[in-house]
Structure formats: C-alpha cells, structure tokens
Design goal:
heterodimer; A: mainly alpha; B: 4-stranded antiparallel β-sheet; 32 strands; about 40% strand
C-alpha cells in the first residue's frame, strides 16, 4: 500500500525528471530540486491551510477579549477552555484546523525522504532494492544514477567542500583535504531551517507556547542540520530546497495577511 | 495563560514526529551499522573459506566449519566489509571496506591477525573485490578509480590510478599483462597492468556492468543492466561480436565451459548461450531473481536465487539434477563457490551465514554462523 501509492510513484517521478535533465552529472541534483518544488506545490493547499490557521490563532491570542478571558478564568482551567472554545466558535475558527494538514503532509514528507535515499542507491543491496520499485517504462540504462553535483559533490555521500587555500594554516589545514572540508550544505540547512521556522511560526502572546516555539526554532534546525551533516548530501540538498521554498511561501503568506489587514483598516 | 488544543497537540506531536523521522532516516541510511548494505563476499583457498560480511571478516575451516580467525577483534561500527577478500600466494589476506580503506592482514597460526599495511587513499567505498596480480594488488573503488598497490607495502604502484566515468563495483580481470575492468559507466576498459594506461575502451554498452567480465578465448563476456549479455572481441579493441537479449538485468558474470556461457538474470531465468554465435542452448525459469554468478563443474551448473534456493542442472542438456533450500526465508545473493564436491553458499546471516551443499545430492549442512 505504502509502496504502491506513495513510494513507487515518487521514485519513478524522480527518475523521470532525472531523465529529462539528461541523466548526466548534475541531473540528479536538479531532479531533487524540481521534485521537491513539485511536491511543495502539490501540498500547497494543505500548508496554506495550516499556516493560515496558525496565523488566525496567533491573532486571536493577541486580542483584548482573549486576554480578558485568560485573566478572568486563570484559576479555573475547565471554564477557561470552555470560554476559549466559545470564542473560537464566535469567530468561526476551528482550533484543530492546523493539525489535520500537518498530519496529511507527514507521509508525503517521509515518502519524499525515502524516495530520494532509495533512488541514490549507493550500494549493491540498495540498488537491488531500488530495482523492485522501478516501473517498466523507465529505461534500465538510467541505473545507477550519476550522483555528481556541482563538480565536487557526490549526492550519495555526506558533502564536504575542501578549501585548498587553508592548506598551510595551523588547525584549519584539515579543511583543505578532500573529503574533510567544510560541510557547506549542512550549514545552509541549519540557516534555512532556522529562517523557515521563524517565518512560519506566528508569534504568540502565550508564554508557554512562546517558550516552546523558541525551543523548537532552535533545536529543529540543529537536529535537521545534524542529519544533513551525517547522511547523504542528496538529502541535505532536499532540505535546503524545501526550506528555501518554505521561506518564500512564508514571506508571501505574511505579505498577503498584512495586505488583508490593511484593506479593512483603510475602508 | 493556556495554549490552544491544536498547539497542545502539535507540541505533543512534534517530538514524536522527530523521533519517527530519525528512525526512518536512520533505517534508510546505508551507514546504519547493523543493517547490511550488501551481501557477503566469499573467497576460498584449498582449506579455508574467507567471508566478509557487515562488521567482520571471518576465516573458516572448510572441513570443520570452525572459525580460524576474525578481523577486527571487536566489531567497529565505522567499518563494514562486503568485498570478497583476496589471498596472496604468501598468505596475506587483502580486504577492502566500506570505510574506503584497504588492509593487508597476516594471520598467525594462533589466530591473531596483524595488519601489515593499510591504504586509505580511495575516495569512496570498496565494493568490488581486490585482486592480487603478481606483486600488485588491484583495488576497484566506488570513487570511479582503479588503484594499483604494491603487495609488499600497500603504496601506489602506478603514477595515477586509472579513472573511469562511473563507480567500480566489480573485481578487475587480469589476463597476461592486461587488466579488463567493467564499470557502472556502461563501459569496459582494457588497461596495461604495468603502467595503468588505457589500451582500449568500449563505447556505451547501454547498461551498467556490476560484475567482473569473463574471458573465453578471445571473447570478453559482460552482463549488463541493459538486459543483455554482450561478447566483446579483445583482439579487435573490444568490438561487439554479438549481443544476447535477456528478460531482466544481468548482475552476475557468466560462467563458461566447453563454449557455453551460463548465467542468470533478475527475471529469474537461467540461460545457457552458445559462444560461437550467441544463440540460446537452453533456458530455465527459476523461483527467484538470479543475482550471483553460477558455479560450474563438469557435472553441474549451480544457480542460487534470491528466494534462497540452489538449483543444479546438467550443463549440456539443462536437465534438472536437484534443487535445495539451505536456509528458508533468506536470500542467496553472493556468488556460490565450489570447494571440491562441496558448494559453499552464503546467506544474509539470519540463521546460518555459510552453508555447505553436497553437489551430488543437494544435501545441506550449516557450516558457520557467527556468534552474536
């Protein structure tokens, strides 16, 4: 079921895009980027709904009415929740509206990870496994994929950019050696993950929620950065592409929201 | 202050999602120490079976099935071995690892193993078997390069390694002073053994080549993922003499005797092809994909399948002699090796890593299973 509806179509779509790019050096890197963008576009209605719902919730929490309820019922949690629900109902907001899209996206994200990792097939056993997932319409001459990207990167291996100019510098000289250089993609993953989390997590007036958001915005980029540092760089490339698209999406949605707020104010 | 129901759920959900994500990613990674990235590599001499699998290389007494030595002393999560070890005339065991290193081991009678030299100049995993050729060791690497090392000290012997356009997953074939090398870049290269310079190379053969070519007189035979067995003429710079179309990818090498090539494909078909004209003598549909090179004796040709079955056929007629299942529910992907009248097969190690199959009757006994 998982393979038939999620994994196999994703693997074959990835291979098809790889073929479109000429199946040579860089083609798999571009295929990852294009495929990530396609999946982002396909899941856009869900992410839009999730972000929209989060923004609405954040706005309510800033309202005077919300603060009054918090103050009034601070010693009665049950009553507080009842009043909160009443307020949501009044404003026509479903407080669980952001959860469902998040859950729906999760299998898509996992499928995407698995498709990228499996398609890279850096060992005979992985290639044997990949062969079980390929549709007959995909030419076998494509396999195994050319995983070279940007001249120095093997997408099946963790990425390290050698810096030859540091060859004579004490302590840093190891960074000049091939395979031991700077993990540029992992650094980019941390930066873009941080920016994306900051842009897509609406500010909240609730102290517990704010603390949790702050913790997540710090730990999540580090965790994803660690994955990018340790695993095949094809995965890191996916993280960077996905984060950059997420940042663009976050910026656009914020602008749309600001414009929507300004219009009623003018009228 | 309180938080909304969705925020509560998201907060509860996120650590779980991260954990699941970490497990899934770790499971997908080839670097997972306990997950085999490939199948065991086996080689033998007259008395010993050498097997490279996961974190260890074992030397097993062929008759008693007892362990003679293993390397390293304690499994190291950073090291894993799948390439069949190469054995030199003076008893050095050369092993290549997924940690990109090549080690020359000198086992003593007491079972201790001394590392004589190490080579760490490869840029990627050693998937294919190293080969000893005179006083050289040839090491194929997934970094697209073939390294020639001095057998005595492990230092590079050629001015530069020989570079192809794709990963090297198979052992090179050495015949006289020429090295024949198959690459995942769809090409076969002929290289001068002394200097490492190219003598000739083929055009794109329209499919990756994952195993060593087989030489039969002047024909070099390669199976490809392009679903073909291709015969190249080594007297004519690798010109294609004929091609034979198969039903699936050809992973293993053909085994040749009396002008007939025996090999299998991913679709599970065992073929016998006449080398004179490249036409089929017989074919048999087996119970699973054939990844390994078949073993061949005068009496039989032995195919193993990923369903875990060994099939024996009479070479000329293709009549079935017997079939047996050494280890139910475990795949047979490694090349079977003949040692006298015993066929040595390796599984993925779920119950019995190495089994000995009697080539006369098909009777199976477990030869070796490493301790946990």
């Amino acid at each position: 079921m998982w393979n038939t509806f999620i994994l196999d179509p994703m693997i074959n779509a990835l291979l098809w895009i790889y073929q479109l790019f000429g199946a040579g050096p860089n083609a798999f890197g571009f295929a990852i980027i294009i495929f990530t963008a396609l999946v982002r576009v396909l899941t856009l209605p869900l992410t839009y709904k999730q972000m929209h719902s989060s923004m609405m919730m954040a706005e309510i929490q800033k309202s005077k009415k919300w603060k009054n309820i918090q103050e009034k019922y601070k010693d009665n949690k049950q009553k507080l929740q009842e009043e909160q629900m009443k307020l949501y109902k009044e404003l026509g907001i479903n407080p669980l509206g952001g959860c469902f899209p998040l859950l729906i996206q999760f299998p898509v994200i996992i499928g995407l990870y698995q498709a990228i990792i499996r398609t890279m097939a850096a060992s005979p056993f992985q290639l044997l496994d990949l062969s079980k997932h390929i549709y007959s319409a995909i030419p076998s001459s494509l396999i195994p994929l050319n995983s070279q990207f940007m001249g120095y990167m093997n997408l099946g291996q963790p990425e390290r950019l050698a810096l030859p100019f540091l060859a004579g510098v004490p302590i840093l000289s190891a960074l000049a050696e091939p395979g031991k250089g700077l993990p540029m993609l992992a650094i980019l993953v941390v930066i873009t993950s941080f920016l994306q989390t900051k842009l897509t997590t609406p500010p909240t007036s609730d102290s517990q929620g704010a603390a949790m958001s702050q913790m997540m915005s710090l730990y999540m980029p580090l965790f994803i950065g660690y994955l990018a540092y340790s695993f095949a760089s094809g995965l890191a490339l996916y993280f960077v592409a996905s984060n950059l698209l997420g940042i663009i999406q976050g910026v656009v949605m914020r602008r749309m929201r600001q414009n929507a707020e300004m219009k009623p104010a003018k009228s | 202050m309180s938080i909304s129901p969705c925020q509560t759920k998201k907060i509860a959900l996120l650590p779980g999602l991260i954990l699941i994500l970490a497990i899934l990613l770790a499971g997908c990674s080839s670097g997972g120490a306990m997950t085999a990235s490939s199948w065991p590599g086996i080689s033998t001499d007259e008395t010993t079976v050498y097997i490279a699998f996961n974190q260890s290389v074992f030397a097993i007494d062929l008759n008693r099935g007892s362990e003679i030595w293993h390397y390293p002393e304690e499994p190291d999560r950073a090291k894993s071995f799948f390439a069949p070890p190469a054995i030199s005339n003076d008893g050095l065991v050369i092993i290549g690892g997924y940690d990109k290193a090549v080690n020359a081991l000198e086992p003593s009678i007491s079972g201790d193993v001394r590392v004589v030299w190490s080579f760490e100049g490869a840029g990627d995993r050693i998937v294919g078997a190293p080969v000893v050729a005179g006083d050289l060791v040839l090491v194929p690497s997934a970094d697209h390069k073939l390294y020639a090392l001095n057998l005595a000290n492990g230092r590079p012997a050629w001015a530069e390694p020989f570079v192809t356009q794709g990963a090297l997953w198979s052992a090179p074939l050495v015949e006289s002073d020429t090295v024949y090398l198959a690459s995942l870049d769809h090409r076969v290269y002929a290289i001068d053994l002394a200097t490492g310079t190219e003598l000739w190379s083929t055009d794109d053969l329209k499919g990756a080549i994952a195993d060593t070519p087989t030489l039969a007189d002047n024909l070099l035979l390669v199976g490809t993922f392009g679903e073909q067995l291709i015969a190249l003429n080594i007297d004519n710079k690798g010109k294609v003499e004929w091609t034979f179309n198969t039903e699936g990818w050809v992973w293993g090498s053909p085994a040749v005797v009396d002008g007939i090539a025996y090999f299998g494909d991913y679709a599970g078909i065992a073929y016998a092809v006449n080398l004179a004209h490249g036409r089929e003598s017989w074919r048999k549909q087996l119970d699973g994909s054939i990844i390994a090179t078949p073993a061949l004796s005068d009496e039989g040709v032995y195919f193993v399948t990923n369903e875990g079955t060994v099939h024996a056929f009479e070479p000329r007629s293709g009549n079935s002699l017997w079939s047996s299942n050494p280890n139910l529910n475990d795949m047979l992907l490694s090349d079977p090796v003949l040692a006298g009248e015993t066929l040595i097969v390796a599984t993925m190690g779920s119950e019995c890593l190495i089994s000995a199959v009697d080539t006369n009757s098909g009777a199976v006994r477990c030869l070796f299973q490493p301790e946990e």
